[in-house]
Amino acid sequence: MNSAGSIRSGRRGAEARPAAQVRLDRAGSGRLPPLPPPPPPGRGARRRPRRHSSRPGGRGVAARCSRGRRALVVAVFPVRIIFCFPPQPPSCRLSFPSHSHSSGSAVEAALGSGPSTPPGTPGACPPAETMRKFNIRKVLDGLTAGSSSSSQQQQQQQHPPGNREPEIQETLQSEHFQLCKTVRHGFPYQPSALAFDPVQKILAVGTQTGALRLFGRPGVECYCQHDSGAAVIQLQFLINEGALVSALADDTLHLWNLRQKRPAILHSLKFCRERVTFCHLPFQSKWLYVGTERGNIHIVNVESFTLSGYVIMWNKAIELSSKSHPGPVVHISDNPMDEGKLLIGFESGTVVLWDLKSKKADYRYTYDEAIHSVAWHHEGKQFICSHSDGTLTIWNVRSPTKPVQTITPHGKQLKDGKKPEPCKPILKVEFKTTRSGEPFIILSGGLSYDTVGRRPCLTVMHGKSTAVLEMDYSIVDFLTLCETPYPNDFQEPYAVVVLLEKDLVLIDLAQNGYPIFENPYPLNIHESPVTCCEYFADCPVDLIPALYSVGVRQKRQGYSKKEWPINGGNWGLGAQSYPEIIITGHADGSVKFWDASAITLQVLYKLKTSKVFEKSRNKDDRPNTDIVDEDPYAIQIISWCPESRMLCIAGVSAHVIIYRFSKQEVITEVIPMLEVRLLYEINDVDSPEVEQPPPLSTPVGSSNSQPIPPQSHPSTSSSSSDGLRDNVPCLKVKNSPLKQSPGYQMELVIQLVWVAGEPPQQITSLAVNSSYGLVVFGNCNGIAMVDYLQKTVLLNLGTIELYGSNDPYRREPRSPRKSRQPSGGMLIVTSCMCGVSSLYSESVKKLRSSFLTGLCDISEGTAVPEDRCKSPTSGSSSPHNSDDEQKMNNFIEKAKMSRKLSLPTDLKPDLDVKDNSFSRSRSSSVTSIDKESREAISALHFCETFTRKADSSPSPCLWVGTTLGTVLVIALNLPPGGEQRLLQPVIVSPSGTILRLKGAILRMAFLDTTGCLIPPAYEPWKEHNVPEEKDEKEKLKKRRPVSVSPSSSQEISENQYAVICSEKQAKVISLPTQNCAYKQNITETSFVLRGDIVALSNSICLACFCANGHIMAFSLPSLRPLLDVYYLPLTNMRIARTFCFTNNGQALYLVSPTEIQRLTYSQETCENLQEMLGELFTPVETPEAPNRGFFKGLFGGGAQSLDREELFGESSSGKASRSLAQHIPGPGGIEGVKGAASGVVGELARARLALDERGQKLGDLEERTAAMLSSADSFSKHAHEMMLKYKDKKWYQF
């Protein structure tokens, strides 16, 4: 295309022709046809297709220019395009036939979109005949500029301008984000193994899921995880070596390096042909004995993690005359006084004392009952065995024929010398001696079979006394803590660590009565199952001391006076200085406040919300609580204002309690209570005598406890005319005076009541505001607002009524059902909680069938296929087969909490709940109406903002979000503060503002013109139980003003932004114009479970957790994606119910029923995490070995040592079979160097390493210098010899 006068056209080597001779129309004329009229503004210049043929069989595209413009014809078969390049700025629009294979609109955008210039006007293109030269660079420049303008147009379409948005400087970038786990708190879930390092004072717990938890002093904890996830069957410390060996159920041994803040695996050894059953590592030995299911014993070098060739075969250990296999190895230990003697216990009851040097059995001990454990006396002359019939046998080493003594600790001693009745197996026994008294025999199990219902026990036998200590849960394992690590010395036990199924107990053996130590670890999170939790970072600094001061009075008495003995490790350097609080709600109605500052966890205060209700003595006394008969007080939602210290909780029995914080004790004579009928139903034509709901108006500002809600049935009786339960709350409030201790004290109890035999639906959203004195809550029936200062109901509306005449779905109110048909196997899905599904008791559920499918159809605008990923607040009915029913029954059996605590069954749409009693036919005409009207309140937010488009200043209001993606605004007219606030009513009125999003609304927040978060108004906390001062001015309650810059509000009409996050998308709305400034579709194939607007690095962002496991962050207000990391698949709904984000890049969720996992998405926190973590290993000198004494040393009575290296080494025992076990190197070495690279110890190690390297390099340099000097001397010598050799020779003699 470098020819100025010609352009190649056509195909098959067509000759180039002058541009003036190109035929552009069918008539063969060289002139261009006249231009069509210009297109209307804002539309593309597409025209009706018109074919232009350049030669037979070819098609082209013609672009038209007016006269006077230069034209460039680019003819690339089969499309021919004319580009116009005016000498002045472009002002012509090109028209392209729409049938072309090339996109006409794209080329139009590339070439500019200005209006067409009529022919003959200045600046028009010259005719094609006058065009001589062109520059290809201008073509490319024009295309580049056009593409940028096209992208700008698309961006303007994505963000409609409305009025021009002010530019907000956003400081957050993607490099500010990094996701990593920080710490895990709570009790190890499903524990299976226990170990203790008596020198380092570190405790290790293994679990059935392959987790490893290490505990040092309070505040020093560590969590590790085996990649395989196999159960940990045994743990063995390398005492005072900073290492740990773990044996897993998949027959793998792992060596953990504990000399770094994050322990890592150094070596692994996988047994291929045998199953590992027991391990034993002698003190100060590097050889690990491994017993297997076949009865063999292998020996592993823990330094190299390789097998020795020395093997003890089971057939050599037992007697040759024995015809049966002895069973798996259940015990291995060496004689405390002779390391060359190994005691081997087989499950069948056979015990063998094996001589390692002679490789033969010295003694064999046989008993009829199976063996569970064996323990040595420290002198090495006796050992004790525990058996499956509840007996203990004590054996002398040199008397293998029969035991010296047989004890049945819990058996009834029969007369006539008969054998005691058998008891339950004694699972473990330990034999510990003291210098000053009788030895301790400590055992678990062994209870009599007739003790039905008796709790698990730990038995401590000391001399003639036997103490039976009952435990709350099953005993998994126990260890006796002793003063010395040497097995051949007096043990001097001082405590027993008991690992229970759901607790860790430490018993003091030194005090009478064996009191327990007060556990300083946060292991009682699951004291009652956690049903919800909230996380608050950067709280007011005086909040944690205030909660601690009232919580310290709740501590139990009777603990041991000694300090907690597990005190190893050192604390990390806390870089986080801001206070953090975690609040957990529990199934028993309790609420716990935790201090979570600096990656630690400590309980501060516990509130029992069930104290305001009457306790049911038996099932006959609780006819109203049958919808949640097992845990009627369970906490469902928590709303807390840290600044005002106001607390509001919603319970599973459709009750709401408001609490104030006070440091004074008070006695409440009468508990204030409100009952609310939150069910929107209007009677049909058949019942005209019942009054209709009154129109929305200002409620009477009375201070009595009776609400004035819109009602459809009389509220004077507890049952309606047809005998159905009516106006009855689920719980009964106490009618006696209530003593309230310092802390959170009840202010008001609100209960939803039964209506016409239908139970109240569970509360799905809750909000409280201390500045307004209001609390609001909603469910799938509607919304209610209560003035807790005046104790009156302000608002009681069905969700449909909030729309008024603006209902986009044109739904009609439901008419009451007068008959109920059997379900005939129909399926019911309910949607009550935001993010989780809610399940009532099957016998009383009256939920509408498949209404949620209709809701999805409405919100999405398209039909919902059965297999699409369902939102937790939406679902669909599907065929119910036997497999699904079996899944559901199993799930309910395993998780009883699910049907009463709004704990979901599953995310799968086919896992539905069957209602056999009160479901109605799918063909009912009422069902279709219910299907559309079932819209739950999913989000509530008090704020001071613009309620309508015409507002010129912000005012108090409530923003309401629903499960259909609708946001409605309710205006609040508050009376003045002080006494007027208690006398004049609050006026509540819907504003008519309706906003729409895709998916259920999850979170709302507001920004000012600078992009800063506008917090809800609050009233600073003050002690309200102290008499007020006389000065009336100081008595006035003033709201905290919302900070809005006056200059910005005057200059810019849109001086606030509303940030709304739903399950599918996020929008930023400009206020008061209500224009959509920014929009981001968060997910298409999944849905958002949790979304929070949080502060990070002096800015704010939107953090989201999706059901597909992704954690995402978006900038505000522009909603730029900043983080998208696949973190955690939604394996169960516990995660969905408890996941929450908070400020400064912190988040948490309940990873198991007993553990809280904390994580961070902040790059700064990830970088400082290594310094914040505590150190498990600290350099400690090993205690001195016990003195053998003169006579023992003289006559050989002391402990005998063994050269295991000589015995088990490769030189004497040979190599082990390669097929027996496979060695797997771990990443611990590299991670250990990285872990040691930070901190003071790391700096010293790095400096020492650098010095060593420098010294090594200097040594190498010195050696090389010496070698060079020697070489130079040698070269000089040879040169001198050569010179002497040829000195006197002539040139011709060479």
How would you characterize this protein structure?
It holds the Pfam family Lgl_C. The chain is of the alpha+beta class and 1294 residues long. 14% of the residues lie in helices and 32% in strands. The strands form 19 sheets. The chain has a 5-stranded antiparallel beta sheet with strand order 12-13-14-15-67. Strand 53 (955-962) and strand 54 (966-973) form a beta hairpin. The radius of gyration is 41 Å and the shape is globular.
- Summed over residues and divided by their number, the pLDDT gives a mean of 75
Based on secondary structure, the structural category is alpha+beta
- Total count of helical runs of at least 4 residues: 18
The major pleated sheet works out as: 5 strands, antiparallel
β-strand percent reads 25-35%
Measured on Cα atoms, how large is the radius of gyration? 41 Å
- Give the overall shape, derived from the CA principal axes: globular
As laid out across the biggest beta sheet, the strand order is 12-13-14-15-67
- How many E-type strands? 67
